[in-house]
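W.,

You were right to be curious about this one. When I first looked at the sequence I had no strong expectations either way, so I just let the prediction run and decided to look at it fresh. Below is the sequence, 707 residues in total, followed by the output.
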Amino acid sequence: MSILDIISEVAWQTNNGVPDFNDPKHIRILELVLRSYNLPESEIKRSIQHLREADDDKYVHKSSGVWVKKGQEDNEDATKYEKTDDGQYKELEGEEESGEDNRDYKQKMLTTPEEGSDAAEDSESDEDGEAGEEADTTTTDSNIIGDITAGDNQAQNDVLQYGYSGMEEATGEKPAPGNNGSAFNEVGSGQGVRMLDVNPDMTDEELIDKMVNTIGQTPLGQLQSKSSGIPIPAALKEAKQVAKQSGDKAALVKANQQINTYTKCVIAAKSARVKYNTTQERISTLQGLGKFGKPQSPVTYYGATQSITAQVSAVDNASRVLLPSGVEISKDDAKKFIKMGGGGANPSDTATFVSDDKGNLMLQFHSDKTSTADIQGSKTVSAENKSVLARITRNETLSPKQKQLALDAVNIHNTQIREIEEGYQNQAIGVAAGLKTLPIEDQVLAIQLESTKVGKNYLDIAVVGTDGVKKQYITYIPADADPANLTDVQKYDMIRSVVADGNGTANDVKVISKVTKAIQGKLGNDTPDAINISKMLSSQRKQAVETIRDRRKALDNIDPGPPPLGVQQETEEIISGFHLGVIDDIDYNPGSDDNARMSAIMNSSFDVNMGGVVVNKKTLRAALGVESIAELQQKFNVEDVEEFTYADKEKTIITGKKVYTYVVNKDDGEKLKVGYKTYRSTEGATGKSRTTITYDPEFQKKLKEVQ
């Protein structure tokens, strides 16, 4: 074992592969890695304590429990801190004169620009000295542009300040669904719109630099992984090379992270540019129609719960609500659409609203992706079957007998999937029993590392409820244990026993699955068959992925069409998942049913923004060569593919399958591959089956060509 071995192991365990020992989570990972090497506990404690004391020379102990920064000893108004048990410095609560919330010092240092830096200059005024009203409201303790109390600015600030996993723990509020990368792209592209509003003449390079030096230096910005295919500036490459040559590991970690962050800022900046330009074009169109006055600054929204509330409030405060087409819609419908955000009729996760001086409000909704290669849609198989059942029930072309046969076929498929998935859970029983034959210490370290990486305590989630130890665990508490102070070893041993006895819940099985994956990663080919859960499930996964094709064939036989009923259902699923319905022109009619009104709002105001590559009515029509869904359905086809996905290089352990390729047959006989569906678990070996849809590389290229 060498220092390099330890650093490499820590890097492998961190989310972005870049250890940062200013981050308490990374210090905790280091502690666990050192323990996994069986180093003396005294040496581990000494090393960790040394890291945690690194900030001590920045503070002076002024009185009992109160610390201030060095140089502020005689300043009565100085911000006061407390030193926590784990050696961190936190601002004392109740210090109103500081105007700041109770944040970890190390996190705050990442977001406070150093004197004379580009970020410091940007925080005081815009580069050309004409900051405007929006810039003037920026507060020194905020990560975002704008009044922290307006809109959903607090939610945006919080996710930047605490990171995706840390936001709920720090604030009690959940971030929008996603991860560190999606959160940064969603908030970052919105902040980029605000930056462009302050200075519309910024070049792309200036916008990227501003984002790097502001939101890029927040804790969330420093948790970003590298996106491929983005040219890296010479200065960042040089900084990395200098750090390598000097042997300064801390400098190398920082240089790598700055490159990672830069790539994500490039993506967010491209998205922001498109959002801003589209907004300006739409404002001009509405003004030309005489429906919009002098615009105020755009208000961008993230996808947290607070964001939905803020959007509803904006609608309530408007005099009229307009779609980008200029059509006025009712406030009730606008609010209904907003509250559906994230699924169903409204798949958006961010939004850009603009008001004018007369109280008119224009709505725009976005689904933000980082790349055209991102997954565009995801459903559990049971949810997909539910959609198919609903469409068949509404189908007016089927005879009563055909309809009943079709409903029965889908229900049979649903039952088969459910039985297979119950088998996945049952496999965990044998795996948990097998884990009992291996050293428990390695297993506990594995789940501790997983918990630390994502900021969730998987052991507590499984064992502890609101009233203490959960009922199913009461009889598993060791006789010599204190139920209120269970150790991680005790909690894990209880989980392992519960699952082995066949009484495990989904949270319990998740712990066993994650531990098993970690142990397999270490043992490789030496993994005992008794705990090789992927190998155990391979044949069941293969059986499961075949059932989707069986469902389509059964429906095709019931109604051969054209188009065949199974193909028709796949077409509907892909139209929904890829949001192809926006191709159609749908008039908003206040007297029509809910689905029609929501579809009209969607088709006029929604787009998918994939790092600046936009999918909307215009680009889809150009890329597909059709003007309506009806025309698309006439040309659409589903082609079978035989392409399994595997857990091993030898391709013996099946984890899923690429199920279909969706093809548009062009008038000239050529085919355009639009995308494909995969069937797999997204939550570990025993996770429920999901279908995901992704654009084919050929169509990704086409979308870029038509921008």
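Here's what jumped out at me. The chain is about 50% helix and 15% strand. And, maybe more interesting for your project: The longest strand covers residues 654-665.

Coffee later to discuss?

I.
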